[in-house]
Design a protein that fits this description.
Blueprint (H helix, E strand, L loop, with lengths): L1 H18 L21 E6 L5 E4 L7 E8 L5 E8 L2 E2 L12 E8 L2 E6 L3 E4 L7 E10 L5 E4 L2 E2 L1 E8 L25 E8 L2 E3 L4 E4 L4 E8 L3 E5 L4 E5 L4 E7 L4 E7 L5 E7 L1
């Protein structure tokens, strides 16, 4: 009877885990492990960046249309109009679920950011002068790329950037401003980026929902800080400390990354 009882107990635990909320299981600075989602068919082909394609039937498959509109102050505002798809930042890294996940943004085939919502601001500093192609591609929570007929589900938009200082370039930027007094923050993270390295090494900071965190970042090059899931951004001028005050009003695991250099600076675990 003991072996049978143990088997039933294990089966019950597995069912609870599968039915519960998917969570991110990778460590800061490392790649996500591939989860065991059974949606669609996992193909041998990939998206060109090592993410395998997850084939689903055309009927009811995710769709995305990308639109880029000039921002009145700086860069462009991008809109992802999706169908049969929902953004699930809280379960990134978990198993593939039907019509759920996130998106990647690419400029001329180079990844700029991971997107967790339908809107994204693209600063002019990240786009060189000239004609470009923006691409957004939809991914499952396990980081496989949704695909139909062997091709990734994606949307494209043409983009022309003028030289800095010329009309139409939308290159106006202002020095970063502290949103609120740092003294009111419950925790402060001080991070330095130099020669492509993050100091201190990326780690996970735990917060209680409602707590406030101050992100103090100094970069040796012009860049943009992005807090995924909250869609908060901060311009990082070269060699100057910039501060972002964030209220952790959403639970989950959220990455803090830089756009131009593509570095993971830290993670916020909000319970």
């Amino acid at each position: 009877m003991a072996p049978l009882a143990l088997a039933l107990l294990l089966a019950g635990g597995a069912a609870t885990g599968c039915g519960g909320r998917a969570t991110t299981h990778h460590k800061p600075g490392t790649s996500h492990e591939q989860a065991s989602g059974r949606v669609g068919t996992l193909l041998a082909a990939d998206d060109g960046a090592g993410h395998r394609l997850r084939e689903v039937p055309p009927e009811g498959a995710p769709e995305v249309v990308l639109t880029a509109r000039p921002d009145s102050e700086d860069g462009w505002n991008l809109q992802l109009a999706v169908q049969n798809f929902r953004f699930t930042p809280d379960s990134t890294g978990g198993a593939a679920l039907p019509g759920a996940g996130h998106a990647h943004l690419e400029l001329d085939g180079r990844k700029l950011a991971r997107l967790y919502g339908p809107w994204f601001h693209l600063p002019a500093a990240q786009v060189p002068e000239g004609d470009h192609t923006l691409t957004v591609r939809l991914y499952a929570d396990d980081h496989t790329a949704w695909a139909v007929s062997g091709k990734p589900v994606e949307g494209k938009s043409a983009l022309t950037a003028a030289a800095p200082g010329r009309s139409g370039g939308h290159g106006h930027t202002e020095p970063p401003k502290e949103q609120e007094p740092e003294q009111q923050a419950d925790k402060t993270l001080t991070i330095t980026v130099r020669d492509g390295k993050v100091n201190p090494a990326p780690a996970r900071t735990e917060l209680r929902r409602g707590e406030r965190v101050a992100l103090r970042v100094t970069s040796d090059r012009v860049d943009t800080l992005h807090v995924h899931g909250y869609d908060k951004e901060l311009t990082l001028p070269a060699g100057q400390e910039a501060t972002l005050i964030l209220t952790a009003d959403r639970t989950g695991l959220f990455e803090i990354e830089t756009h131009a250099s593509g570095l993971v600076l830290s993670q916020l675990l909000v319970r």
